[in-house]
Amino acid sequence: MDPLTLGALVALITIVVLFSGVSVATGLLIVSAGFLFAFDGLRSLELMPEVFFGDLNSFALLSIPMFVIMGSAISSTRAGADLYEALDRWLTRVPGGLVISNLGACALFAAMSGSSPATCAAIGKMGIPEMRKRGYPDGVAAGSIAAGGTLGILIPPSVTMIVYGIATETSIGRLFLAGVIPGLLLMGLFMAWSIYSTWRQQAFSGALEARSFSWKEKFEILPRVLPFLLIIAGVLYSMYGGVATPSETAAVGALLCLLIAIIIYRLWSPKSLWVVLRDSTRESVMILFIIGAAAVFSYMLSSLYITQTIAAAIGDLDVNRWVLMALINVFLLVAGFFLPPVAVILMAAPVLLPVITTAGFDPYWFAVILTINMEIGLISPPVGLNLYVINGIAPDIKLKTILLGSLPYVGCMILAIILLAIFPGLATWLPNLVMGDAI
Amino acid sequence: TELRLSHQWSTNDIRHKVAQMVADEVAAADVDLDIKIFPSKSLFPATEQYKPLSRGQLDMTVLPLSYAGGQQPAYNLTLMPGLIKNHDHAARMNDSEFMQRIESIMAEDDVMVLVHGYLAGGFAGKDKCISSPDDVAGMQLRAAGKAFEQMLAKAGGSIASMASSEIYTAMQTGVLDGANTSSSSFVSYRLYEQVKCYTPAGDVALWFMYQPLLMNKDAFDDLNEAQQEALRAASANAQAYYLEEAKKEDAESVRVFTEAGVEIKQMSAEEFDAWRAMATESSYKSFVEDTPDGQELLDLALSVQ
Amino acid sequence: MILIAVLLTCQMIWVRKINNASTVWQTETVIYLMIAATLIGLPYVQRARGHVSVDLLPLLLPAKAAKALSMVTLVAAIGVMGIMFFYGLELWLVTWEKGWRSETVWGPRLWIPYLAMPVGFGLFILQLIADLVAVATGLDTLHTDERKH
Ligand code: NA
Ligand code: NA
After folding, report:
1. Deepest in the core among A194, A195, B144, B166, taking most CB within 10 A?
2. Parallel, antiparallel, or unpaired for β B118-125 and B207-210?
């Protein structure tokens, strides 16, 4: 069988197996084992544990559990509520102020957490009930948080950027910087949409009441935001101030978050600490298992010469580079509908990167494009982690309402991709400024 | 017949070109032998290639033999400071009794050498030159290989382990004050943008790493005579090419660093001897302690003129 | 274990920055701790239904077929974990018998981290078997209930 036909067969069977309800990592292992056995014989099957272990045997991967700990330590405290409350008191006069403070809180929280579901959960727990209480439609309340949560993987630190950096051997520090401006841009677009839709709703129902806070109230909340700024400053300092390499920085952040959770938010009962560690273990194990399984899967693809053939085929496509980019975007979008970001990046990035760079695109710029595609995947069915998180926080909002509410935000993301395509500098300017021109 | 060759290097790398050259010449010989190359770790992680090679799950690879030093401690001698002075010396090493001993150890693992080859490297400092052991006291350093870490630690430096791809950032942010890696890594990671002084591999150099093209012995024995002959002929040509290109890489690194305005400081013969004395008390000593017949192997290696 | 890894990494940065000393063994230890935590965490996360999955086909199929499908996938999962367990065990035995060490200054014996593979995958198989029994006997209603809302 020629590798391209074989590749199509693998794709088909992988989709069927992944849809069957088996966990993603296990499904990847099952497909890999099946194809290796059928087309490569026993000698490749023997290697599966070695490939699995060898791939996890990397220091950079360690930052994943660390950033997960950061997120869950902070989301288990009142910190998210404080941040949110502070922004709320300062932004009430703006139309749609509450939605805006939620999105701002998401962005700030994203600057500490590497994971989207963590961001979603931390701000959503407080933000969704508040917004609904004050008359915002369910769709806007849930949609804005689902979308705001996705900023977690674009604004640094970001677990998916780390995975991309490892898979493509690009600089993680530079990737992080590349995400900053597009992250803020997205936040701005989300806010703009929220103001517009609130204004429209208000014209119809006038249900949104305005509230005001005294200056005293506005200022007394500020100290409660300090811990956040402390963590962000600590992480930035250790990353760019010569204390630690990007992969080591995660540990500093995790420790800072744990300490702040324990000291400032009095999270010192062993039980609540245990919950934090248990939840982060659960999420890290899930991610790392997918990473290991994806390594075996990509070993299978490579061993059967599928990856190489597809890359060569895409490379030989005689199309305009922007047509190529559009095709790649469609592919990523579709993959993102079904697979979690980490899995898509691991499988696609190494294959696509040579094609991308050959076509003259910047690998750091592409990382941002890829990440925004993954963000769309996070709020689209059937596998939209953020949707399920919101569903968990606010079980009485129908999944359909959440979904419709987040659709306009998907539009914002597609707009951001287009903007980035027109102005690549949005992604490349900051890293070039801080770290010099790309290697 | 199809053989699979895996390596960790990019397709611009000299080590890929060596493998490609063997594959091309064998194909041109028209003896029904096809070598399929899997570059850039597309099949196995870099350090996980020797095991499948020795177990026959992989046919060929190009790798630093010292990566397998955990399995055969004797291999650590192939990345030992001060054993080899320059490329011509390295070429004489390949025909020595020492290399025969190493090859017989490989044979125990069912592995054989097709192409011998060494790459050299140097030192670079962020704020000052690193050419003698006195220079490194109190510096944070990244070294390529455990024997170098031991020697630098003995000289008073502190060791931080990281991938060569992280050196650039680590120097920029000040985590590192100096680094030791191969000439080609110095260039490809653009370290000339970060360092003030470069000590290249010249008439004398400390850092030589043995990176042969290896093959599983059973896989070789299974080939017919014409195929074996074609493989041998291609390997001989590749070996000559490898040596020439390795020399060029050192020269190229000096050119690039000079152009970037980096100070170039050659290591003197006295400094080389001082380093070797340092290594004798650290890396050589610990090698002898950890390795069966370690002293004998070390003496054999040192006896090559 | 992950907590220990966090603390160790911070200790490593501290030692390097403040004492300006070498960090030799920490890097490797934390990596092995992470791998061990992942592998040994597999069965727990399976039990807590923490692995992401896409329940599209089971939702489309009638209840009986969905049950059959879930048994088929569980059996396949057990099979593939059996492969990982078996060859993982074999690899561990090789590292043990040949006394392989990691290629660093510290050079720990490799059988210690490799032990995590047979142990982790072994326990994972047991958990999967328990799940299979639960599905077969109809105990696993929790799973289907959750999906209804
Ligand atoms: Na983030
Ligand atoms: Na999705």
Report:
1. A194
2. antiparallel
